[in-house]
Amino acid sequence: MDIPPLAGKIAALSLGALPVSYALNHVSALSHPLAVALMSALILGVLFVAIYSLSHGEISYDPLYAVFAVFAFTSVVDLMIALQEDGYVVGFMEFYTKEGEPYLRTAHGVFICYWDGTVHYLLYLAMAGAIRRRKRYRNLGLYWLGSFAMSILVFLSGNILGKYSSEFRPSFFLTFPYVLAPCWAGMKVFNQSRAPPSCTPTMLILAGFFTLFRGLVVLDCPMDACFVYIYQYEPYLRDPVAYPKVQMLMCMFYVLPFYGLATYALTFPGCSWLPDWALVFAGAIGQAQFSHMGASMHLRTPFTYRVPEDTWTCFFLCNLLYALGPHLLAYRCLRWPAFFLQPPPSGPPAHHKKQQ
User: Where in the cell is it found (predicted)?
Assistant: First the structure.
């Protein structure tokens, strides 16, 4: 898979988030939730107008260029939020985490901001660079789609079901464009043409069992193994913020069926749908495991819900292997795609009859 060059114009524009967030943090008027939401919406509107004015040709060629440019800007903002919450920088986005979206101050919120500010940011620059040079970015887009979908679905569900359900502010409604835009982007990415055409089913089967087991754990299964696991290996699954529980259920209801179908597709050739969906699920599991593993040990997670020190090795080994499986599957599909191509339809055999 060719990695397109990064979009320098978008990178420069996105770095404007640094002085903007620093200046807004020192505006006393932004101490009210409604003011924070209105100012955020105004900035996004001005940003979109600026991008359209500077990159009209790219947007005419592919409107997703504007989406990736705006999201790159917000990725820098998310990175500053994560760095500030961990004490690496000060004076940038404190007003927003206090009056806009306080649930970003949770361990899970911090790590989805880290992921968005690094992995998603590089994907936005790469995809925007591909559009600028009129190249394909289908594989990158599918990976981003899965990662973004897992991030937003778990985060929004956890906010609604967890202990922060009573702390919704007007800024919460700014997340709706983040749900609608990826849906539109996903349809456009799937409609792009495919590129010309050493994961084994055993590994996917093991990952499927692990997915099912952790789903049963968060559903309070009475088995002794579930009780031991949730108290001695992953107590973070009991955290009342609800993000880990939602994530395990998302995996059980959506990722587990995919593993079953992928096992079939690795056994019987001609399943042309697998390469695309392998990238989507690789992105989803990559983002999910990064946030889950980081939040399980972060200082913002209460001590009783953190991974015990004597089980760190087992915890990291299981979760890293679980994250590695879908990526190996995606690599398998991209490296040897011929196995998944449907054979061309064969015409009716020609029958030659002798004239008598």
Answer: Endomembrane system
Among residues 149, 144, 106, 147, which one has the least CA distance to residue 243? Answer: 106
Q: What is the DSSP track for 11-72?
A: HHHHTTHHHHHHHHHT-GGGGSHHHHHHHHHHHHHHHHHHHHHH-HHHHHH-THHHHHHHHH
Per-residue pLDDT of 123-137, as tens digits, reads 999 999 999 888 889
In terms of C-beta density within 10 A (0-12 exposed, 13-18 middle, 19 or more buried), how is residue 87 classed? exposed
Radius of gyration of the chain (CA): 23
Are 152 and 182 in contact, with CB atoms under 8 Å apart? yes
Give CA 246 to chain center in angstroms. 15
Is 203 exposed, middle or buried (CB count within 10 Å of its CB: 0-12, 13-18, 19+)? buried
CA torsion 164-151-67-63 (nearest 10°) is -130
Q: What is the pTM of this model?
A: 0.85
Q: Which two tokens stand for residue 138?
A: 């289908």
Residue burial 93-115, b: 16+ Cβ < 10 Å; e: rest: bbbbbebbbbbbbbbbbbbbbbb
pLDDT of residue 271 exceeding 50:
yes
47 contacts 120 by C-beta, under 8 angstroms: no
